[in-house]
Design a protein that fits this description.
Distance between the termini: 51 Å
Shape: elongated
Radius of gyration: 21 Å
Largest sheet: 5 strands, antiparallel
Number of strands: 5
Strand order of the largest sheet: 2-1-5-4-3
Helix content: 40-55%
Order of helices and strands: HHHHHHEEHHHHEEHEH
Strand content: 5-15%
Length: 263
């Protein structure tokens, strides 16, 4: 059961999601094709929404599948979406796809994380970047943000630590704010306790670069400059799949490309 299921009825939860999306009742009603009056009654508990209405409103509010289940439970209905472990037989095609993505991205690093930034899988180049990281941080469950920003992790080797940590904290803060997941809020508090990590200002600075690179010095002294892209599963109908993110790193300069290609 989702943590959100304990916070109130379906109407209260729908109102929370609408406020997070910064939508008025009228905006949501128009998009969903229902009357604003009826939506108001649903949010205040004066009207009981049907299962179909809960799912329709959740879709227009872009509510994650896990929280759609919470909304259904709060409204008195059974969950609609499964959460299947990656090691189950029916996930074999997914595992093959993930392996193909990771190996196909070599010789560049790539990792797969879940919604709490725990490392699900990685390719050989990504694992090679972790040489010298504390064994404690590499003990399961591995958390990608903890490994990156911890003083016994990659932090001492990140040459632009302030910029990169700000980039990561901005992503985490936005994710925690939109989801209201206490686990993400706890992770954010933990990371802010690390040396040199500061709360993201949320104020965009004039950009002279196309992206924020990760500038990393390896134990050998080689300096790499990388940028990353994020990918998720489209049209996922399983919670596990929806919550997976694939982060692929690419060389930001010719010397990094040459080094990763072994030239």
């Amino acid at each position: 059961m989702s943590y959100a299921a304990t916070r109130g009825g379906a109407g209260e939860l729908l109102r929370e999601w609408r406020n997070r999306r910064r939508m008025s009742q009228l905006d949501l009603a128009l998009q969903a094709g229902v009357s604003a009056r009826h939506l108001s009654f649903v949010e205040t508990g004066r009207a009981q929404p049907s299962r179909e209405m809960v799912l329709m409103l959740a879709e227009h509010l872009q509510v994650p599948l896990r929280e759609q289940n919470a909304l259904l439970l709060a409204a008195g209905y059974a969950p609609a979406f499964s959460e299947t472990s990656l090691d189950r037989d029916q996930m074999r095609p997914v595992r093959r796809a993930l392996d193909a993505i990771l190996t196909g991205h070599e010789p560049y690093p790539a990792v797969i994380v879940d919604r709490e930034w725990e490392l699900v899988a990685s390719n050989a180049p990504a694992r090679g970047l972790l040489v010298g990281v504390s064994e404690d941080l590499l003990a399961p469950p591995l958390n990608a943000l903890r490994i990156t920003l911890h003083p016994e992790g990659l932090a001492p080797r990140i040459l632009n630590f302030r910029e990169w940590s700000d980039h990561l904290l901005t992503r985490l803060h936005r994710q925690a704010l939109l989801s209201q997941d206490p686990a993400l809020a706890a992770l954010e508090r933990e990371l802010l306790g690390y040396p040199g990590v500061q709360a993201a200002s949320g104020v965009a600075e004039p950009a002279e670069m196309l992206f924020v690179p990760l500038r990393l010095r390896l134990p050998s002294g080689v300096e790499l400059s990388l940028f990353s892209t994020l990918a998720t599963f489209g049209t996922a109908l399983d919670i596990t799949l929806e919550e997976l993110s694939i982060e692929s790193f690419f060389p930001a300069d010719e010397s990094t490309d040459s080094y990763l290609r072994g030239n």
